[in-house]
Amino acid sequence: MTKKTKIGLIQLKISNNKDFNLKNSIKKIREAKKKGAKIICVPELFLSNYFCKTENHSNFKLAEKIPSETSKIFCELARELKIILIISLFEKKISGMYHNTNLTINEKGKIVSKYRKMHIPDDPGYYEKFYFTPGDLGFKKVKTKFGNIGSLICWDQWFPEAARLTTLKGAELIFYPTAIGWHPNEKKRYGKSQLESWITIQKSHAIANGIFVAAINRVGVEKKGKRKIEFWGNSFVVDPSGNIVSKLNSKNEGILICDIDFRKVENVRQHWPFLRDRRIDAYRGLMNNPKDE
Amino acid sequence: MTKKTKIGLIQLKISNNKDFNLKNSIKKIREAKKKGAKIICVPELFLSNYFCKTENHSNFKLAEKIPSETSKIFCELARELKIILIISLFEKKISGMYHNTNLTINEKGKIVSKYRKMHIPDDPGYYEKFYFTPGDLGFKKVKTKFGNIGSLICWDQWFPEAARLTTLKGAELIFYPTAIGWHPNEKKRYGKSQLESWITIQKSHAIANGIFVAAINRVGVEKKGKRKIEFWGNSFVVDPSGNIVSKLNSKNEGILICDIDFRKVENVRQHWPFLRDRRIDAYRGLMNNPKDE
Question: Is the ipTM here above 0.95?
C-alpha cells in the first residue's frame, strides 16, 4: 500500500486560445513533476475559457469524443513523466449528449478511470445544464500506484453525498477540478462569504470522511458579452482533520506541491471514527426528495 | 408561515448537583424569555455532570421514563412562558434500554416531539455506547408556532446524513444540544484544530442544506477519577450561508439570543440551489458500508 505521495495542483489562467492553454498546462505539469509531484491535476475544463457563461450552440464543437487528440497528448505525457494525471474535458458521448468529464490517466499512459460530473449547476453565468447531461457513471475510487484517489468536479463539492460515496468506494484523497469565481457586482457584498463557504464545505468533506481533499481552480477575469466572472483561484489541500495544509492565492497562476501521508487517514479515522457509527439502517430517506409542503 | 423568530441558547456550567442544575437552567431560560427568545434550547444532558466519562452501572439510575418529573417541570415552564423548549434527557425506555433524548415542548406545555440520538460515540472519556441504545425514531421536523425546527444531538453533528435527512423532512433550523470538550492532555496540540473542525462541520450543514444551525454546549472542567474534560462552550448560530451570526466564548456560562429570519432560507436556496440538484437516483450506496479492502 502506498503510504506517502506528493501531489501537484496546477492553478491556471486560461485564455481563449486552446493551443496556448494546452502548452501552458503541459509546461506547468512538467514543472510540477520536476518538483516531485506524482499525481497532478488541472482545473475544470482547462482547455478553454469557461464557455458556460452563455448558452451558445457553437460551443458544442469544443466537445471531444474520448479518446481524443487531447486525451492522447496527456496519456503520452503521463507515460513519459511516469505520473498520474487528472484532466478535465468537455466530452461528447453521442450527438446531443455531452458530459463534463474527468479522466484519470496512469503512469503507463492509460486512461484508468472516467468520471462524469454528477451534479450539474445552472445559475446566471454558469449555464451548465444547457451543455452537460448529468453523469451516468456514478462515484468512483481509482486505485493507482501512488494511492487510492477519487475525483469529483466543481458543483459536486457542495454535495456531502458525493464525497461520502467516493469515500465509501475507497478513495483517501479526492480531487475537485473547479471553475468558480465571483460575479463582479456581487464580489464586494458576498465575495468573502462565498469564498469561505467554498472552503468550508470542502474542509467538511475531509472531516466527515477522514480523507484528503484537493481543490484546483482557475484564476483571472473572463468576459463574454455582459457576462464577466473573476475566477478566484485559492486552490488548496485539506488534511483528514480539516486543516488547510497548502493554498495558492486568488490572483496568480501557480503550482501547489503538497506531501500526502496516507497514514493520516487511518490515524484520524481511529480517533474520530465517524465511519464506524453511520446509521445505514436509517438513511433510506437520502434517496428521496422532500415531500410537498 | 413564521417568517421571523428569536432563539435562546443556554450555555451552562454543570455541577454534580441535579437540583442546582435544574434551578440554574430554569433561571436562565426565564432570562432568555425576558430577552425575547421564543425557542430555547439547553445543552445535552444538562441535569448532571457528563457521566459518560466512565462506565458505571450506578449511572443508569439517572435515567428517567418520559413523561418524568423533570419533563413535567419543563412542560409547565414552557406553558407558563409561552415558548418552545428543547431539553435533553437521559431516557429510560424499558429496563436495559436507555436513550440520549431530546424533547421538544410547545408553548402549550405539550411534548410535541421526541428525538433519540441516532449516532452514538464511544471514545476514551465518552463511553456513550455503554449507556445509550442508538435512536429508533429516525430524523424529524417539528412544526411549531415559531418555525419548522429539528433537533439532533452532539455526535450526530459529524454526520452530513443527519442534517440532510432532517432538512429533507422540512426543518429550517437545527438545534444541536452538545457536550464536547478537550482532553487536557490533548488540548495544547490538537485543541484548536478540534474546535475548528467542530465549527466547520456544522457550518457545512448550514451551507449544504440552506438552513440555520444552532449548537449549544456546556462549559467548565468536569473530573471523575482520572478522567477530566474541559467542555469548550462556543455555542453558536450559523445562518444558511454558513456565516456565524452569534457566538459565546469557551469559558463562561451565557445566554445567546439570536434573531432568525426564515426568509433567508428560501433566498439562499434560490441562489445556491443544491437541493434542486441532488442525484437521488445515484445515492443508494449511502445505505451501505464500504466493501472489505
Answer: yes
In a domain, B288, yes or no: no
The answer as to whether B68 is a domain residue is yes
Q: Is A289 inside any structural domain?
A: no
Residues of B in contact with A208 (CB under 8 A): 158-160, 201, 204
Assess whether A65 carries a catalytic annotation. Answer: no
Q: Per-residue DSSP letters for A234-249?
A: --EEE-TTS-EEEE--
d(CA B58, CA B62): 8
Residue ranges making up the domain that contains A132: 4-278
Q: Which of A160, A164, A153, A130 is nearest to A52 (CA)?
A: A130
CATH number where B8 lies: 3.60.110.10
pTM above 0.95, yes or no: yes
Write the residue in A167, A282, A287 that is nearest to B280 by C-beta.
Answer: A287
pLDDT tier at A112, thresholds 50, 70, 90: very high
What total of structural domains would you count in chain A? 1
Active-site residue flag, A117: yes
| A224 confidence band (pLDDT: 50, 70, 90) | confident
| A·B CB contacts under 8 A | 161
10 Å Cβ neighbour count for A214?
A: 28
